[in-house]
Input
Amino acid sequence: MSTPPGWLAPLVAAVRGVRASDLMPRVGEPDANVRRSAVLALFGETGAHGPDVLLIQRSAHLRSHAGQPAFPGGGVDPTDDGPVGAALREAQEETGLDPAGVEVLAVLPDLWVPPSANVVTPVLGWWREPSEVTPADVHEVASVARVPIAELVDPANRLQIRHPSGWIGPAFRVADMLVWGFTAAVLDRLLDLGGWTRPWEQSAVEDLPEDVLALALRQRRVEEG
Output
């Protein structure tokens, strides 16, 4: 096992005692038959742009989370070795990354996500030996991006998004994507815990764009009917 770089050490130390409520507020409680998923919050580094995190944009044709930027990940299968196995398997299937180059640093608390009726377990990883990534399944993934932390914490790329339900949460405009919802909420907290956040204008609130909202409403109709 290799030692993660110094810039990642504060985040690794901070997540050791982190609680679910430290990552996102809990709204309600999951029932006994809740679906379980895992996502890979994978941090790496390149000489070109320094520390980064791996994100995907899901295909606009999916039944679930269509068009949304996200961490790689998906449902936990019975054959998976828990959330770690699921996160690595899904990341490989979605982006083609080599799991052998990923060092798992921590399994974060389960997070209840009411809009998708999922309990999601984030898995924190260090990309010790980066491999080429690309949309490995074009039916599920529209694009893959290694997003520099410097861009994520740039105040010019930060805002809050208002959903028609009244929910307001953090968002990022990076890599030709609007990152919002669950992924943005977890990213926001990880950036804080890593000590990377720069002051930004949190009063900058925008409504969810019409095209993004249309995809979200389409998903809700599919789930309800």
